[in-house]
Amino acid sequence: MLSQNQIKQITALKVKKYREEFSQFIAEGHKLVMDMIGSSYKIAGIYASADWIVANIILIREKNIPVFETLPREMERLTALSTPSPVLAVVNIPKKKLTVSTLFDHISTLSHQHTSTLSHQHTSTLVLALDDIRDPGNFGTIIRIADWFGINMVLCSESCVDIYNPKVVQATMGSIARVNVITGDLAQTLTTLSGSTTLSGSSGRFPVYGACLDGDSIFSQTLTGHGIILIGNESRGISADLAPLITKKISIPSYGNSFSGKAESLNASIATAIICAEFRRKQIITN
Amino acid sequence: MLSQNQIKQITALKVKKYREEFSQFIAEGHKLVMDMIGSSYKIAGIYASADWIVANIILIREKNIPVFETLPREMERLTALSTPSPVLAVVNIPKKKLTVSTLFDHISTLSHQHTSTLSHQHTSTLVLALDDIRDPGNFGTIIRIADWFGINMVLCSESCVDIYNPKVVQATMGSIARVNVITGDLAQTLTTLSGSTTLSGSSGRFPVYGACLDGDSIFSQTLTGHGIILIGNESRGISADLAPLITKKISIPSYGNSFSGKAESLNASIATAIICAEFRRKQIITN
């Protein structure tokens, strides 16, 4: 049984202000908790049913994670889900600040790993940059897409929904454990990255591909395996201060016919998925 | 001002049972209502603020649609949205029953239209079939994707969430006005369609492409411009009774690297988007 204080503190993590104050967030559900345990995140505590604890005690002891038996009625108070799961983890928020040098380091490491062990698969450094993505479902889904397509660095503007929002964490379906998400000043970072010749090697600058309704078709473009894919806000697109940093505007062609009009746009996560898929498809062909 | 009876009847349309009883559903928001007015759907009534009515009175009179001035506090009772919009339409549900002959007619019409006027763009008859899609957001988003990619026939199993559910209608972002969605016995329909040589012309049978995690990569497949793209349930995939009807299993390759594991799957609407995009891309190249 948990103390009132424990319940109060965990429940508070549903609110951004308290997540920032305590530097913690919650991850719920067996798969997500397992993904978090297997990641570099530090788990502050696991709150679970007796059955769950029994079934997973070896792993928990091995990882030295504090575990607290939680009754169903307590879990109902803790959960941010409509149907509580048997397990919830309180996870420490890592201190990652978006600095250009962190990014350079990360990208160089990636390039090195790819070159040494994965060159037959893909030598690529794709980074996803999200400008003002507000919907938790979209944001989480985009992290899951990045994970699927092997993009493990996602940059976000300060105006994006909080990555540690329980709805975002849930929508990533565990991919938050594998994808590095860094929030910061996008304009400044893109300026530095896109100007770098170190990152892109012989191919010149590190390009910024901006998803825009008036861009050129991704299908007819040369898309390099190095670069930043920039996705804008759900209704307003890429913001005015980032637009000048775009090296190449790209778009997804539509096929609506004139008999019936057509959809005006695609959802931000849908557009991200199609674009990432096309980048990866072109890479298989090139390599 | 509306009568209590009007409010009661419109509010009831949030529930499937009453949508079926009254054969009506609600569409909210300016864009969606405009899309519905411009479609073949019959609008039973429009409920709107005085301002909205003044701004749109010419169109409403021209179309001969009954219109009712609705106060903000009344709209708050009618709406299924978290933030009510200034306009809501009550729309009649068309009597479309999925029969094989309806489908043949529709597909033949489509082929004819494409051949006579759009052959330079795409001569294609793609049909989307949804097996047990339960999430309203996913379902609506898939209709929007179909619209974007010029697929205007979507078949659904009886177990899919109701297309006239307010959350589904909203998630289509107006595409419900342009895409034909027919609910019925998928197994029976797919059996008849895939056996037809009439539909596919010289290319033989009308193929069923089933999205499966163990399918062949869509990028390395020949994908015809004619056929059915079958998408399964969010967690269980394509059901056992439909699996034998698949002509070709297709999948989206992932690029997660061995250092960090990878996402186990993609969301159903994300997978649909990537698959539809690849079908269309291959068509541009072929034509």
Question: Could you explain the architecture of this structure?
Answer:
The structure is a homodimer. Chain A is α/β, with parallel strands linked by helices. Chain A folds into 2 domains: about 90 residues, Ribosomal protein L30/S12 (60s Ribosomal Protein L30, Chain: A, 2-Layer Sandwich), CATH 3.30.1330; about 190 residues, SPOUT methyltransferase, trefoil knot domain (Alpha/beta knot, 3-Layer(aba) Sandwich), CATH 3.40.1280.10. Chain A is about 40% helix and about 20% strand. Chain A is built from 10 helices and 10 strands. Chain A has a 6-stranded parallel beta sheet with strand order 7-6-5-9-8-10, sandwiched between helices. A 4-stranded mixed beta sheet of chain A has the order 1-4-2-3. In chain A, strand 2, helix 4 and strand 3 form a beta-alpha-beta unit. In chain A, helix 7 packs parallel to helix 10. The N and C termini of chain A lie far apart (about 55 Å). The relative contact order of chain A is 0.13. About 5% of the residues of chain A have low confidence. The interface between A and B is large, with 45 and 45 residues.
